[in-house]
Design goal:
Shape: globular
Helix content: over 70%
Oligomer: single chain
Largest sheet: 2 strands, antiparallel
Radius of gyration: 23 Å
Number of strands: 2
Distance between the termini: 35 Å
Order of helices and strands: HHHHHEHHHHHEHHH
Length: about 280
């Protein structure tokens, strides 16, 4: 009995530490994609691009090529990790070793790959921008517009996480169910939910594409990042009309719960009273 309790506490501790690491990595990822890219020069840092340098010269510059080579390697590391650990034979092998920590390990390695990518990413500052908004008044208003739309997109992503059951997405529910002896949480979901999750594991498609491309200035390394992640997103999911219909139903039900909490609690009280009377 004591060994079971110790094992349960160990699993919960690992899962919660992983949740904290993923949360921190997510915050860093938002800063990396949005805030740093929009307000790069706000504190007088180095310029994002050198428009005076011709493309023919920039693409032969050894520093530019070195930075692009490093960035390509970092993107390859992330996409390989994200795809390899989601491949069924690898997933089954990890499941046989780690058990309920399988999803936790996947989220941890994803966050670790993102941290490595953000830490060692090499900005390309010795090449022209593909576009750059530098003339007043758009040099002030367009970054503000980008910031507002980025904020809206991240808010939509986080709200959709509520529909996608974020404790299960991060591996917390797997550990909780393992401690209670309930098995895999996915087995308790409806067939339509299981079908949706098999087609798309996380809600980062259109909103992330907007965040990647909508910027006051698009540098060469940002083009590489946005193009690679957009292509990866386009190839990674296979949603269809049934999945979209299910998402609409879930979004509607979640919005009703959020907008009518008092009504929901009243209905629950009525049902509880009626059940008590029946008993």
């Amino acid at each position: 009995m004591a060994s079971v309790i110790v094992r349960g506490w160990a699993l919960c501790t690992v899962s919660l530490l992983n949740f904290a690491f993923v949360f921190i990595s997510g915050a860093d990822f938002i800063r990396f994609l949005s805030f740093r890219a929009i307000y790069h020069n706000i504190t007088g840092e180095t310029t994002l691009c050198q428009d005076s340098i011709p493309w023919s010269v920039a693409l032969r510059d050894s520093s530019v090529l070195r930075s692009l080579f490093v960035d390509v390697g970092l993107l390859a590391l992330f996409t390989t990790q994200h795809s390899l650990l989601a491949w069924s034979p690898v997933k089954q092998a990890i499941q046989s070793v780690l058990g309920s920590l399988n999803r936790t390990a996947y989220c941890f390695t994803t966050a670790l790959a993102l941290q490595i990518l953000m830490r060692y990413w090499q900005p390309v500052t010795d090449a022209p921008c593909l576009w750059s908004v530098r003339h007043a008044p758009w040099s002030i208003w367009f970054p503000l517009l980008c910031f507002s739309l980025h904020f809206l997109c991240w808010a939509i992503i986080f709200s959709i996480l509520l529909i996608f059951d974020y404790p299960e997405l991060l591996g917390i529910k797997q550990v909780y169910y393992e401690c209670l002896g309930l098995g895999d949480p996915l087995s308790h979901k409806s067939p339509r939910a299981q079908r949706l999750l098999s087609h798309l594991r996380h809600p980062v498609c259109l909103e992330l594409v907007v965040v990647l491309w909508l910027l006051p200035a698009l540098s060469l390394d940002r083009l590489l990042l946005a193009g690679t992640l957009s292509a990866y997103l386009a190839l990674a999911h296979s949603l269809d009309k049934q999945d979209l219909a299910y998402l609409r139903i879930q979004l509607k039900s979640k919005m009703q719960l959020l907008t009518e909490p008092h009504r929901g609690s009243g209905d629950c009280n009525v049902r509880d009273n009626s059940n008590h009377k029946e008993k």
